[in-house]
Amino acid sequence: MTLMKERKADHIEICANEKVTQDHCYWDDIRLIHEALPDVNSDDIDLGATVLGKRLRFPFIVTAITGGFPGAKKINANIAEACADLGAGMGVGSQRAAVENVDKESYAVIKDFDVPLIIGNMGAPQLVPQKRKKAFTDDDIGGAMDLISADVMAIHLNFLQEVAQPEGDTNSYGCFDAIRSIARKYPIIVKETGAGISPKTAKRLSGIGVKGIDIAGMGGTSFSMVEMHRAIAKKDHIRGSIGRTFSDWGIPSPVSLMSVSKDIPVIASGGIMNGLHAASSIALGACCAGAANLILKDAMVSADAVKKRLTMIREEMKATMLLTGSADIRGLASAKYVVLGRTKEWMDQI
Ligand SMILES: Cc1cc2nc3c(=O)[nH]c(=O)nc-3n(C[C@H](O)[C@H](O)[C@H](O)COP(=O)(O)O)c2cc1C
Questions:
Q1: Which of 78, 127, 214, 318 is the most buried (most CB within 10 A)?
Q2: Which residues of the chain have a pLDDT value below 70?
Q3: CA torsion 340→345→349→350, rounded to 10°?
Q4: What confidence score (pLDDT) does residue 191 get?
Q5: Residue 191 and residue 223: Cα distance in Å, rounded?
Q6: Atom of ligand 1 minimally distant from the CA of 290
């Protein structure tokens, strides 16, 4: 296996089987206010929402997980079938392997399904020169979008992962300019990968035509912990130590969301574990919620397992909407809430 295929397989294996999240759940610090007399018929609750210009029946995105190695095709097909069935959005994992002609099929398979919002994926580190590696061009981005008929391309920011990765690409100089150039040609969003997006970075991105951001905040999958497991297995003790030390680095997801949602449309992800968390994120200002690791194990099994998981999330969202007196997503967006504990401490100081 090439190093890239091996890394992707490692990520799936580690995320499915090892502890890769911190213990504190920041979403549980958000408490929506119960309405004892909600005036809503549960059967009439409408979860429909327009997200990045596309109509979703269920405002949820299975965010970038994989592509580019043999096991990825089935995972992406299972996710795509379920998202098409429920009317949710989907992102593929980094398309670097497609641009480098390592594998295209594991991404292109999602075109067999009628997914209402398809999001491509490319790493910001690939947009600038790295040690012995040339930068991808704007045309590479266009080709990657065509491969999956993407509605929008996500440029991912993952420098926490890169610093902890034995073979990491740690030059970030020039990424902002490269993102600006791509945003002039293609519809793009920018996503983090588990460390959140600050108000300063969100404002910079909203000023250059980026359509939205996926905050992917701290509290869910920690790629620092993921890379720690890989580094230890490779006996790279320095990277292993960096991975451990930075295992809770980042801005907690609800904090990132609340502090940027006035500036730009936000997909809320990072540690979303159920429909109550997803509903809370919309009350806090997100246009929709998303998750990766929560879906991964089901996606390794079957499309039906993913459908079951997404249906659970959707029904919990509906229950939350009934209990907050929200007949639709607009109503949920104005539901009242309180912020407790560590999340409140963050909000008081950020
Ligand atoms: C196995 C795995 C692989 C991932 N690969 C990518 C990727 O290629 N590109 C990307 O932007 N994010 C990637 N992510 C990050 C997720 O899209 C998401 O931002 C992050 O895991 C936080 O969400 P979660 O807490 O719901 O897992 C990956 C996540 C997992 C679990």
A1: 214
A2: 1
A3: -70
A4: 98
A5: 14
A6: 26
Separation of CA 92 and ligand 1 centre (Å): 10
Per-residue pLDDT, 4: 76
Which protein residues are within 6 Å of ligand 1, measured from CB? 11-12, 15, 63-66, 93-94, 121, 156, 191, 193-194, 216, 220-221, 269-272, 291-294, 296
First to last CA, the chain: 44
In a 3-state reduction of DSSP, which class is residue 80? helix
Q: What is the DSSP string of 222-266?
A: -HHHHHHHHHHHTT-HHHHHHHHHTTT-S-BHHHHHHHHTTTS-E
The fold of the 3-349 domain, in CATH, is TIM Barrel (3.20.20)
114 token code pair: 């009628």
- How confident is the model at residue 320, as a pLDDT? 98
How far, in Å, is the centroid of ligand 1 from the Cα of 91?
A: 10
Give CA separation, 217 vs 26, 192, 237, 309, in Å.
Answer: 10, 7, 26, 21
**Residue 214 phi, psi (nearest 5):** -105, 110
270 neighbors 222 (Cβ within 8 angstroms): no
**Cα(162)–Cα(223) distance, rounded to whole angstroms?**
9
